[in-house]
Design goal:
alpha+beta; Butyryl-CoA Dehydrogenase, subunit A, domain 2; Butyryl-CoA Dehydrogenase, subunit A, domain 3; 22 helices
């Protein structure tokens, strides 16, 4: 397409040209690897080009917009997104790629990401037949109202209630307290016509726990809120200016019985409650969103590290020992230590995201067939990886911003907006600490059951009763840290030791006459550490598996092996204390790991620019003066400043309003 020019024919600063010409990597092959296949890669490029070519999706002026202008612009993009989706008949994967390319969080995002999946995953065939055509055609727009002003992740503590009235076969939804107000839900503020409401089901005075209901919020004639419903926007936030995160209060709102989702739990006309086959059968929507966050975390970090890497090659600072030009910032080892492990992490998170979504779709298919056996593993894995990957992403984005010095603070760098775009992932759909502890409960259960490896999934086989527990790492040379078997075993040993420590603390708490809840609480710091170690192992394992099963050859295969090793060795140096637990690694072995880390930095440095080029973000989507493909950073920073609305007048209005009177005395004395 016209938007995707031949990049080699464009103007390019000498530093970036030299880096690319010296590369031995096949960038196209690496892009295909990151995209999980040639067909998906080609389709992604086509969809990215559609966004780049459409002026409605332009990002050129977004950094100058006010909050209200951002919402207006995002709504305009939402409407065009729906038009394109219908016109080109996107499947779910294409729709998600297209939405990701738009970059901004659209006001209708929750409709696609949570509202429709809830209908599909929790609705009966009759409910799906009624609601899905309307939702898919955007005749109604839905939100997902779960979090409250006073409650979030702890669903059993939600205060919103849905009381069943058998005499009228209706549910009465009520926000009995101020803290029961639904809060933070995206799309709810001024976009949604309907919403899924998560409320505690009350039948004949008995609390049956949280269940989901569909509630109409606004008139389909003029969009005004319906009687007994108070709904609106929660006001300015850290970011997400294009999203109308909202609040909702309901004053005894009545809905028909068939507007409770009843694929699993059921309420019969007479009020008889039918339990679900599995307690967490209805968690599909949350698990799906958590899985998608794993995917988006890799994308967010890839954007940030692309910007920081290109800029670090273009930026020169410090006197050269040869008397030539100033030193490229990327040639400082300290800068390499900041950024090159992040390149490896971005690849690792992207691969893990693909694996997570494959697992999610596979297990969802099993659940649709009535097989819930894998649900606990899916819930635990998606919870832990959501926490691990979202934090890795945001920690990395901020480090990229710092690595860009003063210019990283400018919105023109693109980095602040990337951070605020992905930062909410650490709290939405479960705050990260709470999610780590959900994974921990799963790990604790498996560890305490002392099952053989044949009874455990591959990712948790290290918890088996017959697992070979190594007392000491066999490493004797730095070179051995390039062996994937050595690295993976080190991560397994670390995870098992962290689980054992947490389990012992929990057991000791119980023995000391503490209650179950108090003993658990006093072991939770150790359990968070154990969950983090488990997830770190899963990500490294996923990365290695993808490389080893790929068609990559030659330089590409060698570089991916190096990136895997860099990701693993960097983790050992970062969490050296955990790897040294019980003497598994000695301080000398950690020192060898650090030696290998520095060697790998030198190896990856040579291909840093091509490695981020392989993420294949067009300039228009990256929207960064610092991260441009051509490296013409300073020209575009200057042009960007000149376009600022505040610079349209030679003398700003504040002079007449405030400065003139203060400056007059100064003029008289000069």
């Amino acid at each position: 397409m016209a938007a995707r020019q031949n990049k080699t024919e464009r103007f390019m600063v000498e530093e970036l040209r030299r880096e690319r010409e010296a590369s031995s990597l096949n960038i196209s092959e690496l892009t295909t690897f990151v995209d999980a296949g040639e067909m998906l890669s080609e389709r992604r490029k086509q969809l990215f080009d559609l966004v780049v070519e459409d002026p409605v999706f332009s990002m050129a002026d977004t950094y100058f917009m006010s909050r209200e202008e951002s919402f207006d612009d995002a709504m305009k993009k939402s409407v065009r997104f729906v038009q394109k989706k219908k016109e080109l008949d996107f499947d779910p994967v294409e729709s998600e790629i297209f939405k990701r390319a738009i970059t901004e969080v659209l006001p209708i995002s929750v409709h696609q990401d949570m509202f429709i999946p809830t209908i599909k995953g929790q609705g009966t065939p009759e409910q799906q037949e009624k609601w899905l055509p309307l939702a898919k055609d955007y005749k109604i727009i839905g939100a997902y109202a779960q979090t409250e002003l006073g409650h979030g992740t702890y669903l059993r503590g939600l205060e919103t209630i849905a009381t069943y009235d058998p005499s009228r076969q209706e549910f009465v939804l009520d926000s009995p307290t101020l803290t029961a107000t639904k809060w933070w839900s995206g799309t709810l503020g001024h976009t949604a016509t309907h919403t899924v409401v998560v409320a505690r089901l009350i039948i004949k005075g008995v609390d049956r726990g949280p269940h989901t209901f569909i509630v109409q919020l606004r008139s389909l004639e003029d969009h005004t809120p319906l009687p007994r419903i108070e709904v609106g926007d929660i006001g300015p936030k850290y970011g997400f200016f294009g999203m109308d995160n909202g609040f909702l209060r309901m004053d005894k709102v009545r809905i028909p019985r068939d507007q409770m989702f009843m694929k699993y739990s059921k309420v019969l006309p007479d009020g008889t409650f039918v339990k679900p086959p599995v307690a967490k059968a209805a968690y599909g929507t949350m698990v799906g969103v958590r899985s998608s966050i794993v995917v988006s975390s890799g994308q967010g970090l890839a954007r940030a590290v692309t910007i920081a890497t290109r800029y670090s090659v273009v930026r020169r600072q410090g006197e050269s020992s040869t008397g030539g030009p100033e030193v490229q910032v990327m040639d400082y080892q300290t800068q390499q230590l900041k950024l090159l492990p992040l390149i490896a992490t971005a690849y690792a998170l992207n691969i893990s995201g693909i694996d997570m979504m494959r697992t999610y779709y596979q297990i969802q298919s099993e659940i649709m067939d009535g097989n819930f056996d894998s649900l606990p593993e899916l819930h635990a894995t998606s919870s832990g990886l959501k926490a691990f990957c979202s934090y890795s992403c945001c920690e990395g984005i901020e480090l990229c911003r710092l690595a860009c010095g003063g210019h990283g603070y400018s919105l023109a760098s693109g980095l602040p907006s990337i951070f605020v775009r992905y930062a909410p992932a650490m709290t939405v759909e479960g705050e990260n600490t709470v999610l780590y502890l959900q994974t921990a409960r799963y790990l604790n259960k498996l560890y305490s059951q002392k099952l053989p490896s044949s009874g455990l999934a591959d990712n948790v086989a290290y918890l088996a009763s017959n697992y070979t527990f190594q007392k000491r790492s066999p490493v004797r040379t730095a070179q051995q840290f390039l062996d994937p078997h050595v690295l993976l075993e080190a991560y397994r040993q670390r995870a098992r030791r962290m689980v054992a420590i947490a389990s012992l603390r929990l057991t000791e708490g119980k023995r000391s006459s503490l209650s179950q809840s108090d003993a658990w609480n006093l072991s939770t710091c150790d359990w968070v550490t154990a969950s983090n170690a488990h997830c770190h192992y899963v990500v490294l394992k996923s990365f290695y598996s993808a490389v080893q099963s790929s068609d990559l050859t030659g330089s590409n295969r060698a570089m991916m092996d190096a990136l895997c090793a860099l990701y693993g060795v960097f983790g050992i140096t970062k969490y050296s204390g955990e790897f040294m637990t019980d003497g598994y690694m000695s301080s000398e072995q950690v020192a060898l790991a650090r030696d290998q880390l520095y060697s790998l930095l030198s190896t990856v440095r040579k291909e840093a620019v091509p490695l981020v080029d392989a993420f294949d973000f067009p300039d228009e989507i990256l929207n960064s003066a610092l991260g441009r493909y051509d490296g013409d950073v300073y020209t575009h920073l200057y042009k960007w400043a000149q376009r600022a609305p505040r610079n349209k007048k030679k003398v700003h209005d504040v002079y007449e309003k405030y400065l003139k009177g203060m400056l007059k005395p100064t003029k008289a004395k000069l």
